[in-house]
Design a protein that fits this description.
The protein has 94 residues and is mainly β. Helix content is 5%, strand content 39%.
Length: 94
């Protein structure tokens, strides 16, 4: 089963440590808490982010316990989170 890491308990994304294919179940290491298992909605490359919950368009994307961007589209739980659906707040203000 592919694995992912939750960096901070506040995060709404996890980082994949292995590539994952659509439909595969991913085991998310949650820093000593019981692991979370969720299905990948699409293929996601290694070291990319996966949504742990639904992230609504305009909502913050949180990694390292910090806002790293804003969702530019609705992002389903288990989806690939990357530049195609996230923008930095600085880019939106320009």
């Amino acid at each position: 089963m592919p694995r992912a890491i939750l960096v901070n308990a506040k995060d709404n994304v996890a980082v994949l440590v292995e590539p994952v294919q659509q439909g595969e179940t991913v085991c998310v290491d949650r820093n000593g808490q019981s692991p979370l298992e969720l299905a990948a909605v699409q293929d996601i490359p290694v070291y990319h982010k996966m949504a742990l919950m639904e992230i609504k368009m305009g909502a913050p994307v949180v990694k390292y316990g910090e806002e790293i961007g804003i969702a530019t589209a609705n992002i389903a739980r288990g989806s690939h989170v990357h530049v195609h659906n996230v923008a930095s707040r600085a880019m939106q203000e320009k």
